[in-house]
Design brief:
With 227 residues, this protein is of the alpha/beta class. It has a single domain, classed as 3-Layer(aba) Sandwich (Glutaredoxin). It is 24% helix and 16% strand. The strands form 2 sheets. The chain has a 6-stranded mixed β-sheet. A two-stranded antiparallel sheet has the order 2-3. The longest helix is centred in the last third of the chain and has 14 residues, at 151-164. Mean pLDDT is 79; it is low at 2-10, 13-27 and 222-227.
Length: 227
């Protein structure tokens, strides 16, 4: 994990840089302009500069491993359960970024029920410049609150989707890890957390707390949520 440091001002511009999250959320670091200018693609193949996604307001950006990752699927299913009204009340945007072709965005959203913003970085250029890890680091990540079913059977289902899909691919580099950032407005970085392995997602409610979004009930017990 990257631990907080109160007086870090180094720009984030390359994969080798170790980026520390400031302890004061109002004192963000600066994302290098070259990274902010890199493009992401939406479901219609429209290019958007990465920095435009968080230019106007504080934004939670979740970088995924790949669209056939079962653990990522469960995590995004829970992101989908965050009511838009919760985000609007806090003036916060939620964005998921994958590393597949843009062709897979629509089917992934249907599969997960995710309706917030989503883009892809198919060349993984932003992943690299932000220092996202490749490979599995052996580390105890604990039990994720977002994995509520059998991990083995779920992973086998994802493999079956890869094999039986119209194009046999893993919808991204299987070795690529993701991470979570809090960015904006402008090129300010308030928080960055890089996943060490596929189980190392930051619990969603702990991220929401950092941006003043109210707690969401992610248990399987039904709850009444007014959207």
């Amino acid at each position: 994990r990257d631990h907080p440091g109160p007086h870090v001002t180094r720009q984030v511009s390359g994969g080798a840089a170790r980026v520390l999250a400031p302890s004061d959320p109002e004192r963000g670091q600066s994302l290098a302009a070259a990274v902010a200018e890199l493009p992401v693609l939406d479901a219609r193949r429209q290019q958007v500069p990465f920095g435009a996604l968080f230019r106007e307001r504080r934004t939670v950006v979740v970088f995924m491993r790949h669209f056939l990752c079962y653990i990522c699927k469960k995590y995004v299913e829970d992101l989908a359960r965050i009511p838009k009204s919760f985000l609007q009340e806090a003036d916060v945007t939620l964005i998921v970024i994958g590393q597949s072709s843009y062709h897979h965005i629509e089917s992934f959203c249907k599969l997960t029920g995710y309706s917030h913003e989503i883009y892809v970085d198919p060349e993984r250029e932003i992943y690299k410049r932000l220092g996202m890890k490749r490979g599995e680091e052996i580390a105890s990540s604990g039990q994720s609150p977002h994995i509520k079913s059998n991990l083995l059977s779920g992973s086998l289902q994802s493999l079956w989707r890869a094999v039986t899909g119209p194009l046999f691919n893993f919808q991204g580099d299987p070795a690529q890890q993701g991470g979570t950032l809090i960015l904006g407005p402008g090129n300010n970085i308030h928080f960055i957390d890089r996943d060490r392995n596929r189980l190392d997602h930051k619990p969603i409610n702990s991220v929401l707390q950092l941006v003043g979004v109210q707690h969401v009930n992610f248990t399987n017990r039904p709850s009444v949520i007014h959207v």
